[in-house]
Amino acid sequence: TMPKEPAVLRQNILDTTAAILACGIDPKKCFLFRQSLVPEHAELAWILGCITNVPRLLRLPQWKMKRASQNNEGTVGLLTYPVLQAADILLYKSTHVPVGEDQILHLELAQDIAQHFNKKYGEFFPVPKAILSEF
User: Keyword annotations for this protein (predicted)?
Assistant: First the structure.
Protein backbone atom coordinates (compact mmCIF):
# COMPACT_ATOMS: atom_id res chain seq x y z
CA THR A 1 0.00 0.00 0.00
CA MET A 2 3.07 2.24 0.06
CA PRO A 3 5.16 3.12 -3.01
CA LYS A 4 8.44 1.20 -3.17
CA GLU A 5 11.54 1.68 -5.25
CA PRO A 6 11.55 -1.06 -7.92
CA ALA A 7 15.03 -2.29 -6.96
CA VAL A 8 14.03 -2.52 -3.28
CA LEU A 9 10.83 -4.35 -4.17
CA ARG A 10 12.74 -6.88 -6.32
CA GLN A 11 15.21 -7.46 -3.48
CA ASN A 12 12.38 -7.88 -0.95
CA ILE A 13 10.83 -10.56 -3.19
CA LEU A 14 14.14 -12.42 -3.36
CA ASP A 15 14.71 -12.08 0.40
CA THR A 16 11.20 -13.34 1.18
CA THR A 17 11.65 -16.29 -1.16
CA ALA A 18 14.98 -17.14 0.48
CA ALA A 19 13.38 -16.95 3.95
CA ILE A 20 10.52 -19.24 2.88
CA LEU A 21 12.97 -21.80 1.52
CA ALA A 22 15.20 -21.46 4.61
CA CYS A 23 12.17 -22.32 6.79
CA GLY A 24 12.04 -25.70 5.10
CA ILE A 25 9.28 -25.19 2.56
CA ASP A 26 9.97 -27.73 -0.18
CA PRO A 27 9.00 -26.42 -3.64
CA LYS A 28 8.78 -30.05 -4.79
CA LYS A 29 5.87 -30.56 -2.38
CA CYS A 30 4.04 -27.24 -2.74
CA PHE A 31 3.48 -24.41 -5.15
CA LEU A 32 5.74 -21.44 -4.68
CA PHE A 33 4.89 -18.48 -6.89
CA ARG A 34 4.91 -14.71 -6.96
CA GLN A 35 1.35 -13.69 -6.26
CA SER A 36 1.68 -10.38 -8.08
CA LEU A 37 2.09 -12.32 -11.34
CA VAL A 38 -1.37 -13.87 -10.97
CA PRO A 39 -3.85 -11.30 -12.34
CA GLU A 40 -6.83 -13.14 -10.86
CA HIS A 41 -5.93 -11.78 -7.41
CA ALA A 42 -6.51 -8.19 -8.51
CA GLU A 43 -9.48 -9.15 -10.68
CA LEU A 44 -11.27 -10.92 -7.83
CA ALA A 45 -10.38 -8.06 -5.46
CA TRP A 46 -12.15 -5.68 -7.86
CA ILE A 47 -15.25 -7.89 -8.00
CA LEU A 48 -15.34 -8.30 -4.23
CA GLY A 49 -14.73 -4.59 -3.76
CA CYS A 50 -17.88 -3.95 -5.76
CA ILE A 51 -19.96 -5.87 -3.19
CA THR A 52 -18.18 -4.61 -0.05
CA ASN A 53 -19.50 -1.48 1.61
CA VAL A 54 -17.17 1.35 2.57
CA PRO A 55 -18.54 1.87 6.11
CA ARG A 56 -17.50 -1.70 6.97
CA LEU A 57 -13.94 -1.01 5.83
CA LEU A 58 -13.82 2.31 7.68
CA ARG A 59 -14.63 0.52 10.96
CA LEU A 60 -11.60 -1.80 10.77
CA PRO A 61 -9.11 -0.88 13.52
CA GLN A 62 -6.09 -1.40 11.25
CA TRP A 63 -7.46 1.28 8.89
CA LYS A 64 -7.95 3.68 11.76
CA MET A 65 -4.45 3.10 13.15
CA LYS A 66 -2.64 3.33 9.81
CA ARG A 67 -4.65 6.37 8.77
CA ALA A 68 -3.77 8.11 12.02
CA SER A 69 -0.09 7.34 11.46
CA GLN A 70 -0.36 8.92 7.99
CA ASN A 71 -1.76 12.23 9.29
CA ASN A 72 -5.33 11.10 8.53
CA GLU A 73 -4.57 10.81 4.82
CA GLY A 74 -4.87 7.07 4.29
CA THR A 75 -4.88 5.87 0.70
CA VAL A 76 -7.57 3.95 -1.16
CA GLY A 77 -5.09 1.07 -1.39
CA LEU A 78 -4.81 1.01 2.38
CA LEU A 79 -8.58 1.15 2.80
CA THR A 80 -9.24 -1.66 0.32
CA TYR A 81 -6.29 -3.87 1.32
CA PRO A 82 -8.54 -6.13 3.45
CA VAL A 83 -10.65 -6.79 0.33
CA LEU A 84 -7.48 -7.85 -1.51
CA GLN A 85 -6.68 -10.13 1.44
CA ALA A 86 -10.17 -11.63 1.13
CA ALA A 87 -9.57 -12.18 -2.59
CA ASP A 88 -6.24 -13.87 -1.81
CA ILE A 89 -8.05 -16.28 0.52
CA LEU A 90 -11.19 -16.87 -1.53
CA LEU A 91 -9.45 -17.23 -4.90
CA TYR A 92 -8.08 -20.60 -3.80
CA LYS A 93 -11.32 -21.57 -2.06
CA SER A 94 -9.44 -21.84 1.21
CA THR A 95 -11.33 -23.51 4.03
CA HIS A 96 -8.85 -22.73 6.82
CA VAL A 97 -6.45 -19.80 7.18
CA PRO A 98 -3.61 -19.49 9.69
CA VAL A 99 -3.84 -16.00 11.23
CA GLY A 100 -2.64 -14.07 14.22
CA GLU A 101 -5.04 -12.34 16.58
CA ASP A 102 -4.41 -9.05 14.79
CA GLN A 103 -5.84 -10.42 11.53
CA ILE A 104 -9.05 -11.96 12.88
CA LEU A 105 -11.17 -8.98 11.82
CA HIS A 106 -9.78 -9.19 8.29
CA LEU A 107 -10.63 -12.89 8.15
CA GLU A 108 -14.12 -12.10 9.45
CA LEU A 109 -14.44 -9.63 6.57
CA ALA A 110 -13.43 -12.42 4.14
CA GLN A 111 -16.06 -14.67 5.74
CA ASP A 112 -18.73 -11.98 5.39
CA ILE A 113 -17.77 -11.29 1.78
CA ALA A 114 -17.91 -15.02 0.95
CA GLN A 115 -21.34 -15.35 2.56
CA HIS A 116 -22.64 -12.24 0.79
CA PHE A 117 -21.30 -13.44 -2.57
CA ASN A 118 -22.77 -16.92 -2.05
CA LYS A 119 -26.16 -15.51 -1.07
CA LYS A 120 -26.25 -13.27 -4.12
CA TYR A 121 -24.75 -15.61 -6.75
CA GLY A 122 -25.10 -19.14 -5.34
CA GLU A 123 -22.74 -21.29 -3.30
CA PHE A 124 -19.28 -20.72 -4.72
CA PHE A 125 -16.81 -19.83 -1.98
CA PRO A 126 -16.28 -21.87 1.18
CA VAL A 127 -16.48 -19.68 4.28
CA PRO A 128 -12.91 -19.86 5.62
CA LYS A 129 -12.23 -20.62 9.28
CA ALA A 130 -9.36 -19.24 11.32
CA ILE A 131 -6.46 -21.32 12.56
CA LEU A 132 -5.07 -19.16 15.34
CA SER A 133 -1.33 -19.24 15.80
CA GLU A 134 -0.03 -19.63 19.33
CA PHE A 135 2.64 -16.96 19.00
Answer: Aminoacyl-tRNA synthetase, ATP-binding, Ligase, Nucleotide-binding, Protein biosynthesis
Write out the residue range of the structural domain in which residue 106 sits.
Answer: 35-132
Kindly provide the b/e burial profile for residues 114-134, where b requires at least 16 CB atoms within 10 angstroms of the residue's own CB.
Answer: beebeeeeeeebbebebeeee
Question: By three-state DSSP, how is residue 1 classified?
Answer: coil
Domain count across the chain? 2
**Distances, alpha carbon 64 to alpha carbons 18, 21, 126, in Å:** 33, 35, 29
**Residues 47-64, mean pLDDT to the nearest whole number:** 91
- Do 7 and 47 lie in one domain? The reply is no
- Structure pTM? 0.86
pLDDT of 135 reads: 60
